[in-house]
Amino acid sequence: MTDSRRTIHRDLVLMLLADARLPVAGHTQSATLEPALRAGLGPADVPGFVATRLRTVTRVEAATAVVALHHLRRGLDLSAVEAAWSARTTSPAMRATSRSQARALLRLVSRLWPGTEALRAVSSSTTPCRAVVLAATAASLDLEATALARLIGYDDVQTVCSAALKLLPLDPADVTGWVASALPAVDALADEVAHLTRPDDVPASGAPQIEAWAQAHVHTTRRLFSA
Amino acid sequence: MPDHTPSRPLAGAPDSEAPSSTRALRLGVCGPVGTGKSSLIALLCRELAGELQLGVITNDIYTDEDARFLRSAGVLDPARIRAVETGACPHTAIRDDITANLIAAEELEADFTNAGGTGLDLVLIESGGDNLTATFSPALVDVQVFVLDVAGGGDVARKGGPGIERADLLVVNKTDLAVHVGVDATLMVAEAGAARDGRPVLGLTRTDQASVARLCAWVRAQLASHRIGALVPQDPGPMAPHFHADAANGLTGGWHVHDHAHA
To answer: Which of A134, B91, B147, B172 could hold B31 in an S-S bridge, CB 3.0 to 4.6 Å?
Structure first.
């Protein structure tokens, strides 16, 4: 049993949330890598794909989460944050994927940490996006904005790379090397977005090609990954 | 800011949701590739759609083939058949991380709940065709069927495994093919019964209406038990017992479950 008087180091909370074994259907996601490969990208392109996502769609996600965290900590209404994310995520398929992942995450964290104010706030929205639910999780567990942004960047890199191992003939050690090589970019992304507070601050840094691939994926009949 | 966060007690119960008699019964169908899981589900839809409100979730490994097969079989409204992609992890999706399937089941149930609050009676969840060790988490399904077929070999049932030994029902499918593949279907069913400690085994072929009627009667009985809150999901078990060809038992062989780690 957990001694309720003990405190948990934030590093451990972050490890729990970043662990691929967290049951939030992460194994169903390729972060758009599957349609990108179908469209012609090859193994050598994967590190570039990771870097592109960190500069574009993942940047939107991380910035949205940080702004949502700011709003949750001050009890501000989240609808403008959600709207800012939605306006910058033009692919309906990517929005649907995010909301589905949000639902999976909310289901888990509401069970583990029931009754926190932040989770109540996002549960009242019918279909919150993943960034907002991650922010509510961070608020519930006293994670800082930089840690939240790092979590989002890291998870995106790992999602692409672990999907690459299923889709391409690769050496897992090489792929882990790609993850390690991307860590400075994750760190930089976190530093760049951590101070944001207003919905207007969320960068409009979508990637039309990635969004087009996400849309195309919905209509394929042979796919390993949901998105 | 301190680096520690106050701990909150984890809600530790594996599944605090009480057995429900109001939501649909969730019935899992698993077993190796090609044993007839999709056909069994199509058969149940054909036989039961007249009396029960049904839904189906498929977990294909690399296509939505199973969902398309069921839709094209014309036995159920295509809107009631949903496919879940498992990211090449069919085991995970029914056992370690059931989230995608739970959400699909909840959405299906919600979509077919009418204004009066009545909805689906039965949701059939088909696992991705995998190997002999895959079983459903009891947090995903209320009851599960493991499907073998005679063409996979008469000795498969005897060899055992968690699904074969402890699924709520073992179906030995395609008994009509037994004569063509040199298998004694009656013996196979009997050996399966012995491996299962008396749990039910059903020899099935869709050309034998009596066997189909027995399958439907079993499903109806499970549903009745679920509705009165008497059905408690049983776990067939985490792993197949496995074989050690070491000096101690190398001659006679033997299956055992143990709790020591392998070096």
So the answer is: B147
